[in-house]
């Protein structure tokens, strides 16, 4: 992709700059580029608007259509602000508990984005040794909700038919019987359940770093 050559530029109007926008450096504000076949193509980075906006904090180009920057340090800052607000609300509502609470005992699995072990998912039975390995600090483990797995007969049949001869088709009855069989299979294979962090409760863990 190349910039619009000078002799074609006169056929295009530059957009009116307003607010914090600037002309897109990729297309010089014209919103279009020339592709390898010398055909007009839309400019991706500015989504053909010809305008871009730079983040006042980190100076990076913002994603078109976004009013806030979600790049690098800005993203981290926003995530931290959100986490703080979520925890403050939970504290006001009495949803910050300790690991010795009855609510904690009911959790099979906890989640904490600041813990590297198992992508942040910690089984109740592993709590002791996982917490033993943590750097000193305060951690909030959130409760999780079990999500039973589901296998859709539709998807299986669809991919089956895709690879079959042209008129391959399965009727309603056959769908239902396959779905039934899949449901029964899943009922018997319970260890496929996944756990999603639900933020209903936060369990506060303070690691003081005083080895005994
Ligand atoms: Zn552009
Ligand atoms: Zn930024």
Mean pLDDT rating: 90
Overall helicity = 25-40%
Broad structural category: alpha+beta
Q: Helical element count?
A: 6
- β-strand percent reads 15-25%
Shape: flat
The low-confidence parts are none
Small-molecule binders: zinc ion
Radius of gyration: 27 Å
Summarize the main sheet: 5 strands, mixed
For the largest sheet, list the strands in their spatial order: 6-10-9-7-8
User: What is the H-and-E element order?
Assistant: EHEEEEHEHEEHEHHE
Alpha-carbon distance between the termini? 64 Å
Number of strands: 10
Summarize the structure.
The protein is built from 6 helices and 10 strands; from the N terminus they run βαββββαβαββαβααβ. It has 212 residues and is of the alpha+beta class. Among the domains are: 72-148 and 193-207, no CATH class; 153-192, no CATH class.
Describe the structure.
- The chain is an alpha+beta fold and 212 residues long.
- Among the domains are: 72-148 and 193-207, no CATH class; 153-192, no CATH class.
- It contains six helices and ten strands; from the N terminus they run E-H-E-E-E-E-H-E-H-E-E-H-E-H-H-E.
- Strands 6-10-9-7-8 form a five-stranded mixed β-sheet.
- Bound molecules: zinc ion (2 copies).
- Residues 55, 57-58, 60, 69, 71, 74 line the site of one zinc ion.
């Amino acid at each position: 992709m190349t910039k619009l050559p000078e002799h074609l530029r006169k056929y295009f109007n530059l957009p009116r700059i307003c607010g914090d926008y600037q002309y897109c450096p990729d297309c010089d504000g014209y919103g279009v580029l020339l592709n390898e076949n010398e055909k007009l193509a839309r400019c991706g980075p500015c989504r053909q608007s010809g305008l871009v906006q730079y983040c006042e904090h980190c100076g990076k180009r913002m994603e078109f259509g976004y009013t806030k920057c979600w790049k690098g340090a800005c993203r981290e800052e926003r995530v931290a602000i959100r986490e703080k607000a979520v925890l403050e609300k939970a504290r006001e509502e009495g949803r910050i508990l300790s690991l010795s609470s009855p609510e904690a005992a009911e959790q099979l699995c906890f989640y904490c984005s600041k813990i590297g072990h198992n992508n942040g998912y910690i089984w109740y039975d592993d709590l002791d040794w996982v917490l033993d390995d943590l750097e000193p600090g305060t951690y909030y483990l959130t409760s999780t909700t079990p999500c039973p797995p589901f296998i859709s007969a539709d998807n299986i049949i669809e991919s089956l038919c895709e690879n079959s001869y042209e008129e391959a088709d399965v009727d309603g009855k056959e769908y239902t019987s396959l779905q039934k069989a899949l449901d029964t299979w899943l009922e018997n294979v319970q260890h496929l359940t996944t756990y999603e962090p639900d933020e209903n409760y936060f369990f506060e863990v303070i690691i003081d770093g005083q080895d005994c």
